[in-house]
Amino acid sequence: xxxxxxxxxxxxxxxxxxxxxxxxxxxxxxxxxxxxxxxxxxxxxxxxxxxxxxxxxxxxxxxxxxxxxxxxxxxxxxxxxxxxxxxxxxxxxxxxxxxxxxxxxxxxxxxxxxxxxxxxxxxxxxxxxxxxxxxxxxxxxxxxxxxxxxxxxxxxxxxxxxxxxxxxxxxxxxxxxxxxxxxxxxxxxxxxxxxxxxxxxxxxxxxxxxxxxxxxxxxxxxxxxxxxxxxxxxxxxxxxxxxxxxxxxxxxxxxxxxxxxxxxxxxxxxxxxxxxxxxxxxxxxxxxxxxxxxxxxxxxxxxxxxxxxxxxxxxxxxxxxxxxxxxxxxxxxxxxxxxxxxxxxxxxxxxxxxxxxxxxxxxxxxxxxxxxxxxxxxxxxxxxxxxxxxxxxxxxxxxxxxxxxxxxxxxxxxxxxxxxxxxxxxxxxxxxxxxxxxxxxxxxxxxxxxxxxxxxxxxxxxxxxxxxxxxxxxxxxxxxxxxxxxxxxxxxxxxxxxxxxxxxxxxxxxxxxxxxxxxxxxxxxxxxxxxxxxxxxxxx
Length: 540
What we know:
By secondary structure, this protein is an alpha/beta fold. It has a 7-stranded mixed β-sheet, with helices on both faces. Strands 10-9-8-11-12-24 form a 6-stranded mixed β-sheet, with helices on both faces. A 3-stranded mixed β-sheet has the order 1-5-4, with helices on one face.
């Protein structure tokens, strides 16, 4: 069977979808603002799955339901609710004790777990992520929340004492920043969205939350959990076209923190719309063009396996994916042969199929875009070296290995965010190092080799260009306790379990000159538990 035939036969008929995986339409007609789930009677947008059902004219995308197309009016209502709940730092949530905020979050997690099956199903159908990976994303998110709560307890414990320095009594803790606008990405619409949403809430901020364009409906089952777990106005949801609802929010100047994971182009637009950008704190996860460098002494089997996984996990739709491979000419033939052979062994199909690796792409414009960059590479001297590479059928695209790529090609600089693997040969390690240095992006890099005398100086160069250097392994985000950030145009702010708590807060202190009167005053506040901030309570 040819690749084209495999693509054509991959899409099932309605009857061939296993009963346990069939999607039920979700017609979302509600949204959460100021602690109330309100009914939406205005226009809605249909949600079409990347999964298609076989028909006479080819696969037709399954309609999954619809969501509200809100207007500026509702967006500003959500913003006002968040601002009122924060109340310039005087609101219930920002002044609540850390222990009390943790209790609210633990209640949310309990309610969230009850919705696991619904969220996982929608995650699979909305973005084409495999059933196995969809379950992993949900479970990893729950684990992330638990780890964040544990980190916050430790952070608060370390701040539970007073210090006396140069005649000044002080207690230093972390305080919230204000109203956070939270926007996550479609490739990890639950997990990466929650890596900003959860720490922002826990630190006492209030939130306006817009789900990504793909991966909207999977958040619907959690609306009641948000409503019932937090005081009103702490979490508010908005839906619709970003240009119509996000711009008006930013222009008010009421947003204190922009938490956005997406393209640098959109991030720049959003930041520039704020009337006081110097007062706006940004937490941004942006573009990446992570490179792998395969040295002549590398374990080729290991390198090919890691590069395959790094380039094609979730069809390459990860910011941490390997987007370009530099392979030394002495091992290029062996490496490419192993890479192509490994691709031939990947299972292509629908997301519910066991061990499936290549699944439908959620963006309708992605297959034609990938065809464009492949054609551009061919025009400048590259070839698709694996059989059927780049072939498409509906929303499925078969992985393509493009070799040799050079600086004239779009694939040299553009983040393809799909199952296309550009490979560039090199003779001197200065060539890939020059690429990393000159790149606009600086998230991660992978180095494959065994000679410590060669790798050590590379590390010293690369750590000043990217935020993470992976030795003999693919680029990746986890474990979540590790810092996740980037240099240049790849990120702003650091996300990890502990770093995220800090990035959504600021160090604040209460201080007084050491005198009998002040000692008496502070002692009275502490013993009477008059203040939630000035407190020596220890969270167990």
